[in-house]
Amino acid sequence: NGYAPEAAAVLENGHDQYSIHNLKNGIVTRGVLMDIARLKGVPWLEPGTPIYIEDLEEWEEQAGVRVSSGDALFIRTGVWPLREAEGPWLRGRRPGGSQAGLHPSVIPWLKQRDIALLGSDHPTYVSPSDLPGAVHDFALMY
Fold first, then answer.
1. Are 51 and 100 in contact (CB under 8 A)?
2. CATH of domain 26-141
3. For a 10 Å CB count at each end of the chain, is N or C smaller?
4. Tens digits of per-residue pLDDT, 31-46?
């Protein structure tokens, strides 16, 4: 990513903090899958479709589940049925550069809900965006 960490932050076996290696023994927590494509009644969200707080809360209401502290939250946009319909492309590099995903305005909501982990069937952020990668950056730092 072009970032050179401080030498003191890197140990013989890699980073001590914010490293995937810290999860090598697994994670035990509740997983919540928000199927936003299904919520919208479509097989996939069109590329460039932002997912807003209102969408997340509508999903909670319909599912009868509230995202809460410690949850592993996964967002489904339906990218795989889209890829099957359009044919293969390099993941994250769809022609036109657009992808459905979380709008940066959801960051305070994610922080408030104190989730432990964020994942998606595609990059977690919407593109194009005025703040490209903001949700991804938040997830890495939080």
1. yes
2. 3.50.30.50
3. N
4. 999 999 999 999 999 9
